[in-house]
Design brief:
CATH topology of the largest domain: Aspartate Aminotransferase, domain 2
CATH superfamily of the largest domain: Type I PLP-dependent aspartate aminotransferase-like (Major domain)
Low-confidence stretches: none
CATH class of the largest domain: Alpha Beta
Number of strands: 17
Number of domains: 2
Largest sheet: 7 strands, mixed
Distance between the termini: 46 Å
CATH architecture of the largest domain: 3-Layer(aba) Sandwich
Helix content: 25-40%
Number of helices: 14
Strand order of the largest sheet: 4-10-9-8-7-5-6
Shape: globular
């Protein structure tokens, strides 16, 4: 779609109906994509189409509508497989979101493989969803959690990580891109070092999947998770990728319909992958519409998206750096399109409230990453997170909004 360096921003913005809305009488400037991205008409229309012309329960019906819905859902699985370059579609497990995907691995893989004294390595950059599940399984198994520190720029410290690795390391679970700072973790090196200790690796790809091409085979990662709602798809749906051999060896996470082969009161046998981990009726319309979101992103192209978003991040960083009393939190040289900052002597929630009256949506708070906030000795930050439909004029609107905040609190 983006040819000869021309990024079709007007066309893209026209694909998102909500961007024509007003907030408090002002044009909506949506800069909260790190929390959840808006949806293009292709996704919205697909949800309606599924319920209007192609809905039934999947896999268990022999009638026409069930076959139509099943085919559409499994087509979305193949799209997710190609999106991640997984070796086989059976390695794609549909979950409610990245949170459930991590909990699935921590519970199923963790309880089957971790013993007292084994070590799990996380980093300070993690979202709570990649901390708490590991704490729970560590308490259940006697495993120990080790934490990789970051420096004052928010950079993942590889030398400290290497020191933490040992023969006791069984799992390394780290974010691909920090949701609070935008730091891109050098996951290729992280994985390479973990392999030397025969440790398993899980990557939280929530903030990476919308911005960067992901190739799980090239990475040689064991598990990878992302959420649909950050990928311009529906909420309530996500993907867990796992290597087939690992998933095969793991016990089911939930029991119920769909994940069984045969049930008797004496013994139950389980279905083959991927269905062993997909108990109950799935989010059928959400899965199908996630496939539409993947199609939409592929139609633009990740090179074009990355170039556009990087330009926005550089421009916003430059504009805010020029302003007085602004502290940017997280200045790693390798960043995705996330800009966290604070205004001196102004609480982030006040900043967010005032910006909202100008129609500008940003996220304020600890971003479900309290260890990051503790590292920088702040309670919260203001986070502007950019997406494929944002513009430099919206960055300018953010800057003008910040100036009004400064004037009010002068």
């Amino acid at each position: 779609m983006a040819a000869n360096g021309s990024y079709p921003i007007d066309r893209i913005r026209g694909d998102f109906p909500i961007l024509s809305e007003e907030v408090h009488g002002k044009p909506l400037v949506y800069l909260d994509n790190g929390a959840s991205a808006q949806k293009p008409s292709a996704v919205i229309d697909q949800i309606s189409k599924t319920y209007e012309t192609g809905y039934a329960n999947v896999h268990r019906g022999v009638h026409y509508m069930s076959q139509i819905a099943t085919d559409a859902m499994e087509d979305a699985r193949r799209k997710a497989q190609m999106f991640l370059n997984a070796a086989d579609e059976k390695e794609i497990i549909f979950v409610r979101g990245a949170t459930e995907g991590i909990n699935l691995v921590a519970s199923s893989w963790g309880r089957a493989n971790l013993q007292e004294g084994d070590e799990i390595i996380l980093s300070v950059l993690e979202h709570h969803s990649n901390i708490v599940p590991w704490q729970i399984v560590a308490e259940q198994t006697g495993a120990v959690i080790k934490v990789v520190p970051i420096d004052d720029a928010g950079i993942f410290l590889m030398d400290e990580y290497e020191k933490l690795l040992s023969e006791k390391t069984k799992m390394v679970a780290v974010t691909h891109v920090s949701n609070a700072l935008g730091t891109i973790v050098p996951v290729e090196d992280v994985i390479c070092l973990a392999r030397e200790k025969d440790a398993c690796i899980l990557l939280d790809g929530c903030q990476a999947a919308p911005h960067l091409p992901v190739d799980v085979q090239a990475l040689d990662v064991d598990f990878y998770v992302f959420s649909g709602h950050k990928l311009y798809g529906p909420s309530g749906i996500g993907v867990l990728y796992g290597k087939e051999a690992l998933l095969d060896a793991m016990p089911p996470y939930e029991g119920g319909g769909e994940m069984i082969d045969r049930v008797t009161f004496e013994k139950t046998t389980y279905a083959e992958l991927p269905f062993k981990f997909e108990a109950g009726t799935p989010h059928i319309s959400g899965i199908i519409a996630l496939g539409s979101a993947i199609d939409y992103l592929n139609g633009i192209g990740f090179d074009a998206i990355a170039e556009h978003e990087h330009g926005l991040l550089e421009y916003a960083t430059e504009r805010l750096t020029e302003m007085n009393s602004i502290e940017i939190v997280g200045t790693a040289p390798e960043k995705a399109a996330i800009l966290s900052f604070n205004i001196q002597d102004v609480h982030p929630h006040d900043v967010g409230t005032i910006l909202d009256h100008d129609g500008i949506a940003v996220r304020t708070g600890h971003h479900c990453a309290q260890p990051v906030m503790d590292r920088f000795d702040v309670a919260a930050t203001v986070r502007a997170s950019f997406g494929l439909y944002n513009t430099k004029s919206e960055v300018d609107a953010l800057v003008e909004g910040i100036k009004r905040v400064q004037e009010m609190f002068a």
